[in-house]
Design goal:
The mean pLDDT is 94. The protein is an alpha/beta fold. Helix 5 runs antiparallel to helix 7. A hairpin with a 4-residue loop joins strand 10 and strand 11. The chain folds into two domains: 199 residues, Formyl transferase, N-terminal domain (Rossmann fold, 3-Layer(aba) Sandwich); 98 residues, Roll (Methionyl-tRNA Fmet Formyltransferase, Chain A, domain 2), CATH 3.10.25.10. The relative contact order is 0.11.
């Protein structure tokens, strides 16, 4: 089939490589424009831009895919199907209608659970033990089209969102190939796929920096899950009020710690040369690696040699 690939982030790359290996024709890769974030000098990495260029395929980065000009450009490729994954724009009905069979989307959850921009992250934050991928036949409603293919996978107990997302991207590639085969045999009119149950919909909004704040009032399991879910961004951090100079402390690595005596949430209950344990709503959290603001990541043993931190100190 003749396919338009639309993607920006790394989740789309295995899918792209799979369709090329299968022999499908790809005249264009569509991605988001690369520009620096506010306060940054360099644009963030664009894995699909790099993958398209490496494959020798033209890459197009329109400001909006839904303008009349962009839709006309899509029509000009005379494609059979659009493959959308980790793209970053919602396609209008006219954009979806610009190719013969519309579009399919590879999504990192078992829809209708976790519709939105961060399905993998929220599955980990919420402590789910299973998730998966879904390939849908797209409609203008966000992640709302009928499911063509679903593949379930276990979430490992210590798996971060970053590691899980990489694994789901690989699992998703053959699921996309299967969906392409289904549409290649479709008559274009009969119902295809399984409609999503609207009563089972849950949301997975984009993460913000505030999601990285460690809430010490929560139980230890919830704090560990949140830490796993916010890797690599925004990461976990807390505030150490050092008198007039509060310190923002990035927590790179942490784990559950059993406590003989429960302190109040955020209270340091163990602080010695090799150990730093903080009480939370239930249980404790052992900090393994930290990064003081403006410094490098260091083991907690090194941190404790350089900073005066005693039991009773409170993290906010």
């Amino acid at each position: 089939m003749r396919l338009i690939i639309m993607g920006t982030g790394p989740f789309a790359v295995p899918m792209f490589e799979a369709v090329l290996a299968k022999g499908h024709e790809v005249p264009i890769v569509v991605t988001r424009p690369s520009r620096p974030a506010r306060g940054r000098k360099q644009a963030p990495p664009n894995p699909m831009l790099e993958a398209g260029q490496a494959a020798g395929i033209e890459v197009w980065a329109p400001e909006s895919i839904n303008t009349p000009e962009a839709i006309e450009q899509l029509r000009s490729y005379d494609a059979d199907l659009m493959l959308v994954c980790d793209y970053g724009q919602i396609l209008s009905r006219d954009a979806l209608g610009s190719v013969r069979l519309g579009g399919i989307n590879l999504h990192g959850s078992l829809l209708p659970k976790y519709r939105g921009a961060a399905p993998v992250q929220w599955a980990v934050i919420n402590g789910d033990t299973t998730t998966g991928v879904t390939v849908i036949h797209m409609t203008p409603k966000l992640d709302g089209g009928p499911a063509l293919v679903q593949v379930e996978s276990t979430i490992e107990p210590h798996e971060t969102a970053e590691a899980l997302e990489s694994r789901l991207a690989v699992i998703g590639a053959p699921a996309v190939l299967k969906a392409i085969d289904m549409l290649e045999q479709w008559d274009g009119e009969s119902e295809i796929g399984e409609l999503q149950n609207p009563e089972a919909v849950t949301k997975a909004p984009r993460l913000t920096k505030s999601h990285g704040v460690i809430d010490w009032t929560k139980c230890a399991a919830d704090i560990v899950n949140n830490h796993r879910g916010v890797q690599p961004w925004p990461g976990s951090f807390t505030i150490w009020n050092r008198g007039k100079q509060p310190m923002r402390l990035i927590v790179s690595s942490l784990e559950y710690a059993a406590l003989d005596k429960q302190g109040s949430p955020g209270e340091v209950v163990i602080a010695d040369k090799q150990d730093l344990v903080v009480a939370c709503g239930s249980g404790g959290i052992r900090l393994r690696e930290v990064q003081p603001a403006g410094k490098r990541v260091m083991k907690v043993e090194e941190f404790m040699r350089g900073y005066q931190l005693n039991p009773g100190v409170r993290f906010e």
